[in-house]
Write a structure and sequence with these properties.
- By secondary structure, the protein is of the alpha/beta class.
- The protein has a domain of about 210 residues: Rossmann fold (3-Layer(aba) Sandwich).
- It has 12 helices and 13 strands.
- The strands form 4 sheets. The protein has a 7-stranded parallel β-sheet with strand order 3-2-1-4-5-6-11, sandwiched between helices. A two-stranded parallel sheet has the order 7-10.
- The radius of gyration is 19 Å and the shape is globular.
- The N and C termini lie far apart (about 55 Å).
- It binds nicotinamide-adenine-dinucleotide and 2'deoxy-thymidine-5'-diphospho-alpha-D-glucose.
- The site of 2'deoxy-thymidine-5'-diphospho-alpha-D-glucose (DAU) has 19 residues, from helix 6 and strand 8.
């Protein structure tokens, strides 16, 4: 089996590459990544010499290069993680989100149609469902929840999902989609909540919580997400959407306080800053379908996963210190430098 993993130098994609190489010693895994600011070749260093692994620096929007690679490699399955993934950046500059997340998806699916494929899998997000109110803890996102997006990022992901389903219906492309909640774990880029708070707390820097920090996210350890995608590409039904999440709802402020506690840092580092525009209040996944059909359940409880994650960041300082010492400094200054406190 030859599997294309796009965006495999990013957070979830790299964890998926490791999972697949460990689980299927006879599979060939080809990672396609443009190496944007979020892609990091050093992340893939442990597998670079694995004879079953190949890395190709490529932009999924580059039709000619993508077709050439399909012709050469003839993949059986494509798993598309490649995306611009950060909501705050999409608010600053939506265009690249539409290009990569929608048009890049189209190029990949056109290649699948042209060269043939057993499965095209789109890695999507629970953000396509919009948000849920805080006062209705009985409500969850199911696969039937209407698409209702808030940010340019989530709109681009929803646009891609609609296109994937259109390619299935119109051209008969064998597709699946997974819509997952917030992941956390090793190799999470330090612009995102959990690694940003760990890095700042370790440096005794302010911990910028948007608004009151009452927004709720449904956290899933990244390895559990990788197992879900593995199951879907092997056993999931073509043309279906699978929600992935593990009933691990947490308020942002509680996560930041927990990180302070684990690191022995004072909560006085917490600074409430101007809220994100259009900030979604609560995400919560109903994972009944993937559980009933494919037997998937999350294995890592948040209390254990967050400890493992903090330990990983302590043990792998070089990985993230290199990242935050470069262009990230400009990003941080731009996003947080003039952000008013509340
Ligand atoms: P990430 O930002 O860490 O990684 C994205 C990767 O895609 C990077 O390696 C980057 O170089 C690559 N990339 C970007 N544009 C590209 C292009 N044009 N061509 C080729 N490669 C390109 O993102 P992540 O958090 O690992 O998310 C991966 C996927 O999972 C995304 O599609 C995201 O929407 C989805 N998702 C993420 C989460 C989460 O909590 N992080 C949850 C649900 C779904
Ligand atoms: O739900 C899945 C989505 O989760 C994925 O589709 C996205 O790719 C991924 O980035 C993530 O989106 P979020 O916007 O939920 O993640 P982020 O880590 O940016 O923010 C999590 C919460 O923390 C959110 O309510 C905003 C808040 N936050 C974030 C940052 C970076 C802060 O309060 N302060 C911060 O500095």
């Amino acid at each position: 089996m030859n599997i294309f993993v796009t965006g495999g130098a990013g957070f979830i994609g790299s964890n998926f590459v490791f999972h697949m190489l460990d689980t299927y010693p006879d599979y060939r895994i080809v990672c396609l990544d443009k190496l944007t600011y979020a892609g990091n070749l050093s992340t893939l260093a442990p597998v670079m010499n694995n004879p079953n692994f190949r890395f190709v620096k490529i932009d999924i929007c580059d039709r000619e290069a993508i077709y050439k690679l399909f012709e050469e490699e003839k993949p059986d399955i494509v798993v598309n993680f490649a995306a611009e993934s950060h909501v705050d950046r999409s608010i600053e500059n939506p265009e690249i989100f539409l290009q990569t997340n929608i048009l890049g998806t189209q190029v990949l699916m056109d290649a699948c149609r042209k060269y043939g494929i057993q499965r095209y899998h789109q890695v999507s997000t629970d953000e396509v469902y919009g948000d849920l109110p805080l006062d209705r803890p009985d409500l969850f996102f199911t696969e039937e929840t209407p698409i209702h997006t808030s940010s340019p990022y989530s709109s681009s992901k929803a646009g891609a999902d609609l296109l994937v389903m259109a390619y299935h219906r119109t051209y008969g492309l064998p597709v699946t989609i997974s819509r997952c909640s917030n992941n956390y774990g090793p190799y999470h880029f330090p612009e995102k909540l959990i690694p940003l708070m760990i890095a700042n707390a370790l440096a005794d820097k302010p911990l910028p919580v948007y608004g009151e920090g009452l927004n709720v996210r449904d956290w899933l350890y990244v390895e559990d997400h990788c197992r879900a995608i593995d199951l879907i590409i092997h056993k999931g039904r073509v043309g279906e959407v699978y929600n992935v999440g593990g009933h691990n709802e947490m308020k942002n402020i509680d996560i930041v306080k927990l990180i302070c506690k684990e690191l022995g840092k004072p909560e006085s580092l917490i600074t409430h800053v101007e809220d994100r525009k259009g900030h979604d209040m609560r995400y919560a996944i109903d994972p009944t379908k993937i559980h009933n059909e494919l037997g998937w359940l999350p294995e890592t409880k948040f209390a254990d996963g967050i400890k493992k994650t903090i330990k990983w960041y302590l043990d792998n300082k070089e990985w993230w210190e290199t990242i935050i010492s470069g262009e990230y400094q400009n990003y941080y200054e731009k996003m947080y430098g003039n952000r008013g406190t509340i």
